[in-house]
Write a structure and sequence with these properties.
Helix content is about 10%, strand content about 35%. With about 475 residues, the protein is mainly beta. It has a five-stranded mixed β-sheet, with no helix packed on it. The chain has a four-stranded antiparallel β-sheet with strand order 1-29-28-27. Strands 2-3-4-5 form a four-stranded antiparallel β-sheet, with no helix packed on it. It is globular and about 75 Å long. The N and C termini lie far apart (about 65 Å). Belongs to the WD repeat RBAP46/RBAP48/MSI1 family.
Length: about 475
Amino acid sequence: MRERAKSGQQQPVDDSYSRWKNVVPVIYDWLANHNLVWPSLSCRWGPQFEHGNHKNRQRLYLSEQTDGTVPNTLVIANCEIVKPRVAAAEYISAFNEEARSPFVKKHKTILHPGEVNRIRELPQSNRIVATHTDCPDVFIWDIEAQPNRHAVLGAAVSRPDLILTGHQDNAEFALAMCPAEPFVLSGGKDKSVVLWSIQDHISTLATDSETTKPPGSGGSIIKSNSNPSEGNDKPADSPSIGPRGIFHGHEDTVEDVQFCPSSAQEFCSVGDDSCLILWDARTGSSPVVKVEKAHNADLHCVDWNPHDQNLILTGSADNSVCMFDRRNLTSGGVGSPIHKFEDHKAAVLCVQWCPDKSSVFGSSAEDGLLNIWDHQLVGKKKESGPRTPTSASGLFFKHAGHRDKVVDFHWNASDPWTVVSVSDDCDVSGGGGTLQIWRMSDMIYRDEDAVLAELRNFKSHVAECPSWQ
């Protein structure tokens, strides 16, 4: 099984990084670079809580993977998101990769029991997140009710608001929250996929007053059987629940899981056995469809299209991304993807569909690149941007701002075409990581005719302006 950011071969990214820096003001509408003291293996957007004329403010979830001298942490940050066409090109080009961005500020620190390998937010509540660490359990946190802690040597870890049990071995990376209902899905080294419902453990505050309650107000919305006077320092004191179902079908570690966007009963999983499996909890604990050879190596990640629920993406250690149509999948044999997207030079670690256009998705890899693809461009003679004989079909943007493996990224559902990405820079800097928040220029993804019309209008405007000399 891969160790996503805990090990891995350093890729030659210096050349592409240097070329990228030269074109930053041209291809980005906004870019913020934030140097991390400790590497983070996960990054997720939280709720947007303030709207301004030029900037919005939004929660951002990160982790700090320490060396043991201080506790590992789950970090809740406040992030300022500059609105489209506000940032000046001079500012965008002047970023310092060694600096800490003024747009990202810590709001709260939770001392996490073990490393934070994966963070996932609950769509039904803007206060609940789940985390995976190097143990069999899933931790559920009410991040607004948790006290702010200081990460110092010897400090007791924070206590999760709820613990989900059911795995028989460590479950480190595979974690998903259901968009339809408050269900949680996990996979682990025990080769199983485990499903929980936390519906009965979240109070009605989550639905009755969530939209009117600002972040940071009120007590925990997770029902607890523990005595508050006992403190908040031992995970073992947290309430726990068992699984709703355990599903068997993989022959090796389950590396990623994802719900069908419209159902809490349908989900998929991928693993180190090179299999893509589709499940339906209503039909039992066995696979509905098992694609035995979805890739030619371990599968690291999977995502289900929220706009077209027939399309599923998988990323693999064979450096490729495959797109499957579940209507064409049959059990056994080699998987037959609609298309295989090949451009990365190292293992793909994360794939995610874009919430703003149904045919667009991103993929990040150990080669230090985050590629943006549009499957509608595949097979077309005329694709957006300059084409070279070596250009990959469907690829229309490369984010090359990281100097080491890009371990995670997340599209911002509240701010169109805005992405947060994080890299583990231990191999190039000896420690730490890089967080980047960025938005490509809208002239890259907008309709070509609309872009050309805008440029013509701008040219006419410039021509009509009186000379300043």
